[in-house]
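Dig into what follows:

_____
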Amino acid sequence: MGGVRLELRCPRNVHGVSLDPDPDWSFDALLSELSAVEKKLNASSPFLSAPFSERQLRNASGRTNAERSPVAFRMCLAEDDEIEEAIDQRIVARNRFECHEVYLSDESDEDSPLEGQPYLMDEVGLVEGSLFELNHDYQFGLKEEVRNHVSTIERDLLNENEKSTAALIRVRRYRDARWDTEKRMDTQYHRKIAEGLDNHLTDIQREYELKSQIEERRIRNDAAHEEAKRKALYEEKLRQEKAKAEAEARVRAEEARKKALEAERKAKEAADKEAAEKIERDAAMKAQKEQAKQRVIDQSKEAQPTGIKKPESAGDIVKAAKSALNLEQARLQRYKEIEENNQALRLNKDFSSKERHIVRLIKQIRGIKDNVRAKATELVKIFNDPSCPQSISIVMFAKKVVSLSESPDTSAFAWAHVIVLIASKVPQAMDFLLAELHRVCIFTVPKYVMYSKPAFESREAHYKSLGFKEDNGKIESVNDYLKRLESYIRLYGALVQTEVEGVQNPHGLAEGWAWLARFLNALPANIYTAVTLKSFLQMAGYALYRKYKSQFGKILNVISENYLAALKARDNSELNPVIAEIQSYIEDKKFLQVPEGRVLQGALLSREMVPESDYRESYNYPSNRYYY
């Protein structure tokens, strides 16, 4: 009996997978394939359970018929690479086909459609067929179980991978969040450290500054204490010297008195012997007196214009201190000699261009520090110019400064500043300027010429001796003269108080103090001296008070009690405005106010003109007399 050939009712190729032409697998082949799959799974996943064992197969084979799948045998036809790819993609392509029982009969049926066709397999018995079918079902169920187990493992692997990925993401996020938190905390910590350090350094600096201030205050206090001690010692020394001088004077006076008494006694004893010589001694004394009077007349001769007669007693006409007259005479004499030499030099050369240049520079002087220094430098260059003798240029400068100072718009303090700077380089300039001031204004000596009919030919001659100008034979008015007088005194008052840092004023504030003392001691109280005193106080009173303090206050008391009283006693209505101004200056303490124009722009002249050490000096003069 031949075999029957069976044709599959399903297609041979499904989704690119070809059916196995030999559906009958051996048991050993199945075990080999399962072992290969198990090894691949064990190698690819750490989560796979222990490999399949014989016990597991027995358990799998112990399934009841009810648990077995009624479906036909399934066969997976693919190469090893395709199997691994299918496992990775979690998709296993399955194709199944059914093979129904084939009726096999030993009887031949001529009418059977299978007659004459070869059989698929040899006819077997019932037991063998049942065993074959059982083996087939067992293999199919085992494969199905393996596939389900593999699918479960794959799903578990995917879930584990997803969980691991999610956990890793959470860990990374936690790590990033923690890193940001720690970074913020670290930044805050560093900021707190920086703030603490800054506060600490600020406290240290504040403490250092406080200690420095305390130390500076202590140093200043020590310096003030030392200065006060030095001043007290200096004042004590002055008092001791004064007391010593007074004691010596008393001793000398006592000795002189004793000598006089002794001489008188001797004179009485020798009266008879000296009777013959008395006439000769009287004649000698008379001759000496006449010589002394002649010397005084000669000293004041330069200040007397034409028309003054020779007075019987020069002391009754010229009112001035002897020291002031000596200084005036020396300056005028030297000035006269220079003028004579200059006249000889002018005969050979014309210096008018230099004179115009000097006038232009003087007119350009302003109350600005840089301007003052620039003009002083330019004038010094002119004085040192070899093309023009220095004596000529200095005399021209002195004359032009004095003549131009008559203008009411003149900045006296600025001009005085320039004069001091020039005198520091050319000392002769100060002497020539003072000589020119003495020549045009006798009150800068100070000096006054009294009127006397025997001494002057007329009133005009007396006015000329005071410095009045004459134009076409006509004497200027008193008001014009007083205006010029005020301009000269304002320039002189500004000059004596001007001090520049690093420069010594040869005619400084001490000369101004001496001038004021000589003025009050020698000059009478009238309209001319009143205007002079008012102008001088307005210009130099501030500096004199800062330096001499209480001594200047004593001067003001004498002016108020004596000089103003003498002016009021004259009962002249023209004096009332001047008296009111002087009295207001004293009562309102205007000497505490800085005069207008004294401070140059860009510099405080009070600090430059009067050094701080000079303010602390003290002079003990008696209240009823002034020394110079």
